[in-house]
């Protein structure tokens, strides 16, 4: 059975750009405070990335344990 994929595709060259802008190490969550500051950025691309990141936090993710 084939695994279904979401309709979202982020280019390989664009992966990690938001993390680089926030100077957050790989494997750690980007703090919400930084994301909310970035939503007020002058750059439209940065605003879109921050909005996407905030929305993605709310999605149900596979393999996560409920505490």
Shape: globular
Order of helices and strands: HHH
Rg result = 14 Å
Number of beta-strand segments? 0
| Mean pLDDT value | 87
User: How much helix, percentage-wise, in residues?
Assistant: 25-40%
| Regions with little confidence, pLDDT below 50 for 5+ residues | none
Class computed from helices, strands and strand pairing: mainly alpha
Give a quick account of the main beta sheet: strands, pairing sense, barrel closure.
Answer: none
Distance between the termini: 30 Å
How would you characterize the overall build of this protein?
Helix content is 39%, strand content 0%. The N and C termini lie far apart (30 Å). The model has no long low-confidence stretch (mean pLDDT 87). Helix 2 (32-38) packs antiparallel against helix 3. The protein is mainly alpha-helical and 67 residues long. It contains 3 helices and no strands. The radius of gyration is 14 Å and the shape is globular. It has helices at 17-22, 32-38, 44-56.
